[in-house]
């Protein structure tokens, strides 16, 4: 159902003004797609050796390697670099610089995944002894990102 309606409703949504977007069916489709994406990825695990690998001081090469490995274990989700020139700075990378995608939408990484990878810390760090599953990798829907932008695939 989501796949069948997605393109038509997305195109219609883009043509609406703010009032027309407020109760548009695409918002419900996004919610349903997010739930389905979480269910479809719930049995995949983050490799334990990736926990903490993107702590401060990481390089663009380290980021590329980790994102490529994440991409290889996250099917049906895909991992994308979100900067347009990933090799512009060979020094430390400060921003998460990646998004997750499903067949229909983009997601920001979850706070949990960012903490697991070492990108965020918390005074109330709730890490468990088991690595995150991709269902918890999905953060907010990236409605602030233009879905037409081509994201570079991570390379090892």
What does this structure look like?
This protein has helices at residues 2-14, 18-22, 25-40, 60-73, 111-117, 134-137, and strands at residues 78-81, 98-101, 106-109, 138-141. It is α+β, with helices and mostly antiparallel strands. It has a domain at 45-141. It has a 4-stranded antiparallel β-sheet with strand order 1-2-3-4. Strand 2 and strand 3 form a beta hairpin. It is elongated, with a radius of gyration of 17 Å.
What percent of residues are in strands? Answer: 5-15%
Largest sheet properties: 4 strands, antiparallel
The parts where pLDDT drops under 50 for at least 5 residues are 84-94, 125-130, 148-154
Question: What is Rg?
Answer: 17 Å
Strand order of the largest sheet: 1-2-3-4
Molecular shape: elongated
Structural class: alpha+beta
Total E-strand runs? 4
Average per-residue pLDDT, rounded, comes to: 75
Kindly, what is the distance between the CA atoms of the first and last residues, rounded to a whole number of angstroms? 36 Å
Tally of helical runs: 6
Order of helices and strands: HHHHEEEHHE
The portion of residues assigned to helices is: 25-40%
List the topology elements.
Elements: H1 2-14, H2 18-22, H3 25-40, H4 60-73, E1 78-81, E2 98-101, E3 106-109, H5 111-117, H6 134-137, E4 138-141
Antiparallel strand pairs: 1-2, 2-3, 3-4
Short overview:
With 156 residues, this protein is α+β, with helices and mostly antiparallel strands. Helices cover 38% and strands 10% of the residues.
Relevant terms:
156 residues, alpha+beta, 6 helices, 4 strands, elongated, disordered C terminus
């Amino acid at each position: 159902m989501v796949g069948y309606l997605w393109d038509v409703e997305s195109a219609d949504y883009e043509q609406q003004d703010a009032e027309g977007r407020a109760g548009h069916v695409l918002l419900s489709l996004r919610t349903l797609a997010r739930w389905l994406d979480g269910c479809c990825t719930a049995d995949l695990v983050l490799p334990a050796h990736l926990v903490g690998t993107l702590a401060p001081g990481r390089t663009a090469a380290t980021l590329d390697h980790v994102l490529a490995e994440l991409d290889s274990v996250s099917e049906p989700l895909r991992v994308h670099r979100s900067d347009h020139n990933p090799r512009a700075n060979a020094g430390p990378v400060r921003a998460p610089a990646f998004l997750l995608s499903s067949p229909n939408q983009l997601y920001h990484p979850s706070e949990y995944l960012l903490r697991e990878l070492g990108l965020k810390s918390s005074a109330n760090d709730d890490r468990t002894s088991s690595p995150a599953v991709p269902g918890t990798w999905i953060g907010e829907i990236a409605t602030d990102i233009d879905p037409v932008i081509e994201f570079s695939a991570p390379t090892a």
